[in-house]
Specification:
Number of helices: 10
Strand content: under 5%
Helix content: 55-70%
Number of domains: 1
Distance between the termini: 43 Å
Order of helices and strands: HHHHHHHHHH
Structural class: mainly alpha
Number of strands: 0
């Protein structure tokens, strides 16, 4: 109904066609299905930023009241998130080319980067990543690019930094599924991404001050069950 009231104000599957492969995982996932999910996720993200959807409207009256709210910001917000998708698609393509034919001494680094990438960009990431952290995703992908370049030049330093990251990442991997949305675990998870930037791609700068000690401080207050 929003599209009927204001044509062109929300993205369509056609708008997202250039980005349909950003979350594709193997040939089994069709572009049309991927585009459909991206549209749904993006609309949920946009409407959640503009309207109060907590709780979401569950009656016809509540839904109609929502439709009557101003929509002036929707176009601008839609374009902002489309720009993010465009940037992510571009960097992911560059990463794919970088990791396509890695020399043997970079295979471990490449595998770690692929795992990190799949934890950041996956079907549904737009709706499941905290909105606060979504704009930082391009920087995390750029950090992967820099990491690959530096690992080739300084393999010993890369191995040392991998040793630092490994137990911190394992702690997140071991987080029970029902706790992954807990605020303390969310803080830990994204601070870990910032630490990767600090260790592997210092020129990009971190969003906030971060260190191994900071991660360990956060870990001490993490709920376990």
């Amino acid at each position: 109904q929003l599209r009927k009231r204001r044509p062109g104000i929300l993205p369509t599957r056609h708008d997202l066609q250039p980005f349909t492969l950003i979350t594709a995982q193997g040939k089994a996932r069709s572009e049309s299905g991927n585009a459909h999910q991206l549209v749904n996720d993006l609309i949920q993200l946009i409407l959640g930023e503009v309207y109060d959807l907590n709780p979401p409207p569950r009656t016809e009256a509540a839904f109609q009241a929502l439709l009557k709210q101003p929509t002036e910001d929707l176009k601008e917000i839609s374009q902002r998130w489309l720009n993010l998708l465009e940037e992510l698609t571009k960097i992911r393509g560059e990463l794919a080319r970088q990791t396509a034919k890695l020399p043997i001494h970079l295979l471990d680094t490449g595998q770690q980067i692929q795992r990190q990438l799949s934890d950041l960009i996956y079907p549904g990431f737009l709706s499941q990543t905290p909105r606060y952290w979504l704009p930082h995703l391009p920087r995390y992908l750029k950090a992967m690019q820099i990491r690959l370049e530096r690992a080739d030049l300084e393999p010993k330093k890369e191995r040392q930094q991998r040793t630092v990251i490994a137990p911190l990442q394992q702690r997140w991997n071991d987080c029970p599924a029902h706790l992954r949305d807990h605020p303390d675990w969310v803080e830990y998870r994204w601070t870990l991404e910032e630490l990767r930037v600090a260790l592997f791609a210092q020129p990009l700068k971190t969003h906030r001050t971060v260190s191994v000690e900071k991660l360990e401080q956060l870990a001490r207050k993490l709920p376990r069950e």
